[in-house]
Structures are given as C-alpha cells and as structure tokens.
Design goal:
The protein is of the alpha+beta class. It has helices at about 5-10, 20-35, 50-60, 105-110, 110-120, 160-165, 165-170, 175-180, 180-205, 245-255, 290-310, 330-340, 350-360, 370-380, 435-450, 460-470, 480-490, 495, and strands at about 65-85, 85-95, 100-105, 125-135, 140-150, 210, 215, 230, 235-240, 260-265, 280-285, 315, 320, 330, 390-395, 415-420, 425-430, 475-480. The protein folds into 2 domains: about 1-160, Nucleic acid-binding proteins (OB fold (Dihydrolipoamide Acetyltransferase, E2P), Beta Barrel); about 180-325 and about 390-495, 2-Layer Sandwich (BirA Bifunctional Protein, domain 2). It catalyses: tRNA(Lys) + L-lysine + ATP = L-lysyl-tRNA(Lys) + AMP + diphosphate.
Length: about 500
Amino acid sequence: MPETTPETAATTTPEAGSDLPEQLRIRREKRDRIIADGGAAYPPDVAPTAGLAEVAAEYAHLETGEETDDVVTVAGRVMFVRNTGKLAFASLQEGVGDRLQVMLSLAEVGEESLAAWKADVDLGDHVAVTGRVIRSRRGELSVMATSWRLASKALRPLPVLHKDLSEESRVRQRYTDLVVRQEARDMVRAKARVLRSIRATLDDDGYVEVETPVLQLIHGGAAARPFGTHMNAFDQDMSLRIALELNLKKAVVGGIDKVYEMGRIFRNEGVDSTHSPEFTMLEAYQAYGDQHTVAELTRRIYLAVADSLGSRQVETPMGTVDLSGEWRWLSVYPGLSEAVGREVTPDTPREELVALAAEHEVEIDDAWPAGKVVMELFGEIVEPGILEPTFVCDYPAEAQPLARRQDEDPRLIFAWDLIIAGVERGTGFTELIDPVIQREVLTAQSRAAAAGDEEAMQLDEDFLRALEHGAPPMGGIGIGVDRMVMFFTGAGIRETLLFPHVKPEA
C-alpha cells in the first residue's frame, strides 16, 4: 500500500466529490493532478530572496524598457493573471498590500514551464518566481521569470470585492477581507500604531507594564455583567475579568508607583456598533496623583496617538475635532442646568428629576436613585452635543463606587469622563483609598448583587486587605482602546477588531 501523506489523504474526503461547486471542484482537481504527477501543491522549502516592496524600492530608478542582470526570487499571492500565447503576466501581493508584476515568456522559461503555469495557477494561489528585475516596455517594474514554483494552491476563489464581500462577510471571513481590501489591512496597522504609541507614552513617563489574571474568583472594578466559567482543578466557579482595576491598585500598594496594563476584558452585555463582549482596555494608576494629573496624562496619550497617525485634526460625524485646542472641564450639574434651562443641583428632589426626564423623553428606571437619574439625563441631553475634548466632572457618587468622594459635598466624587464628539472616550479618578469607606461602598454593592443586580460589584476581601496595608493617594484612568481607534479612524467597533464575535453561521 502506498504511503499516505497529509496531501494525498485529503483527496479521499467527501468534500472532494463532484457535489462541490464548479470553482472549488476545478481547483481541487488541479491540486490532485499536481500531486499525482509528482509535484508539490504545498512545498515546505520556498525561500524568497527579496520582498516585493524591497524590490520595488531598490529598482524604482529603472527607466521604461531598462533591464538588469540582477536575479531575485520573490513570492506572493496571485491577484491578477493574464495569459497570452507566448507570454503570461501576473501581479503578486504581499503583507501590507505591496504588489509587483512578474512576467513569464516562452523564451525564458520554456514551453513546459509556461504550459504548467497556464494550467496550474489560479487567482489566490501563492507562487514563487525567480528571474531578472526589469522595467517593461509599458513602464511596469517586473521580474522576468527564469523559473517559478507553486507555493500554495488556493482551493477557494477570492471574493470579488464589490460583488461578493458584504459587511457581514468581511467580519466573518476577515482573512479574505485582508487579502482583497486595503482598508482592512490599513486598519490592522493603524491599531498597531495606536498600541505602540500608548505604550511609548506610558513607558517614557516611567510606568511599568504588568499582566494580571483574566480568571477571577470575584469580579470587580466596574459595574458590568461578567462571563462565568469553572476551574476544574479547584472545582471553583470563576469569572472572566470585567476590569483591570483592583489588581493594578494592589500593585500600587506594593510599591509599583506607576503601573499600567493593556488587556482584554469581558462583559456579558449587548453587542452593537460601539460595544463588543470582548475588548481591549488600558488602565493606568499613579501614586500621589489625582484626577487632574491623570487627565493630563490622558491628553498626552491622545496627542501622541494622533501624531503617530499623522494629524491632530480628526473628522467625526459631528464635525472636525482639533485635539490641539483646549481640553475643557465641565461639571455635571451646571452643565445639565444650562442644557435644560433650569437649575439642577444635588439637592434637587428626585420627583423633579423624573419630571425633567419625562419632559425631555429620557427613559429611566423606577429603581434608580436621584444621582443615577442625573447621570442618565446628562448622558442623553448634554453629552451628544459635546464636540471638543471635555472632561465631564463632579459626578454623583453613584457613578463610580471606587472613586474618592469630595470633602465639601460627599454626594459628589473626584472623577471625570472624557467626552469627544458625543462619545465617552475615557474615564479618570482620584481613587478612593480609605479602606473603611471602601468597605462600606463595596458592602452596599454586594447587597445590590445579592438582590439581583447583575452589574453590581462583589465584596473583595483581598482588595480591602490590600488597602488596609496603606495605599498611597493615587489617580487612575481607564481608556477603551478600541473606541480610541474608532475615534481616529471613523470605523465601527467590528471593523477595529481583527476577529470580532459574530453569530454562528446557520
């Protein structure tokens, strides 16, 4: 019996049958024929000597019709192919979308090799071509082949960009989206530049990057519904983290005075154009900082990212945002008062706030306290009209259980949300470090969780024990990295995530 290899084994699968669509059947038959004739459809030893972009840059000076004796081996995916009697032309593509033409002539490669090219190569295949670098008579920089090899046979055709690749297909099959659409490739690299810029700003400022556990016994650090899981080794129910906060604060207690993490967090909530159940969060904490020092840090992070992407002028649906301009501060109650034309303060009775919500057609929950109603009113009435960067501050205490309350009015906290173009882009705090008050707040949260509030935090004794060892005064920030990318690129969250969550295929 002949030896079975991974390549030959696939020829016996049911998918190889005649019930396949014609395009897939023809390509499968080509693969099988190549292997049966002793060739390799997926050779392991293809070794280019130069990248397509490298060749394009090094030989950009060649004049039309000029040839060299410089021999290179290039490789890439076939994105265009045209065969004539004694000539064949193809456009190869690599990585970021760089392309280079290759030419095969009867005189250079011989009749058998040219015939094999015409018979075997389809759009989407990966090929390697060895030959001289020339500038064609039509002015196209090219590699004039002396030989070629199939590097990988594509068994499915590439989609036609404007015909086959719907938005749903782009998200579900991102790999084909990356092949055929330059915007998709640009997004990947734009996000990489954002991540590098954030890290560079924090690293240069003396922050230490750390990693903290994704699996947690107790979820905390935010008001959100967690994903549940189970650790078999300890027979222990656990949660995927909803925030990075508590472990980073423990690190500050331990003496890492400036600490940050950019990590994935998971919230078992809705999915829409601005929300994903899994996303990247930046959190940073600074000993002896406060809401003002971390606001300035946030501003510098945004400016550095803007510079890395090429402009501090950002186009949004609301208009152009100039990040070089003033980053103003706006208190919640005065801002809401101005918007509704009447004074609203922490003393305003809840029934008046409810009436105000009805007047402005803002939906509220009957169980919400007055501070939560104020937050909803501000979010629905004021925030959508804020274009330029604005630190919205002096929130009701209900907004953030982990923020320090103000001495003059404990109903307010030292915290802000950064609003740009009507959307929250980050949040910052003067952190609550008094372990007695923090225990009271988390106990109230725990009671709410026990009463059925799935977003309430649980009582974390280890976090409280850390605070009891003495936490320095500190400021902290949280920035959704994906939302930052959305702001700078104008894309939805599913475009900024390389492989976003989608419903299962039918």
